[in-house]
Amino acid sequence: MAGILAWFWNERFWLPHNVTWADLKNTDEATFPQAEDLYLALPLAFCIFMIRLVFERFIARPCALGLKIQANGPQKAQPNAILEKVFTAITKHPDEKRLEGLSKQLDWDVRTIQRWFRQRRNQEKPSTLTRFCESMWRFTFYLYIFTYGVRLLKKTSWIWNTRECWYNYPYQPLTVDLHYYYIVELSFYLSLLFSQFTDIRRKDFLVMVIHHLATISLITFSYVNNMARVGTLVMCLHDAADILLEAAKMANYAKCQRLCNFIFVMFSLVFISSRLGVYPVWILNTTLFESWEIVGPYPSWWVFNFLLLLLQVLHSFWSYLIVKIACRAISKGKVSKDDRSDIESSSDEEEVPRPALKFHSSATNGTNGTNGTNGYLTGTPCSDEH
Question: In sequence order, what are the residues at sequence separation of 6 or more whose Cβ sits closer than 8 angstroms to the Cβ of residue 59?
Answer without folding.
Answer: 136
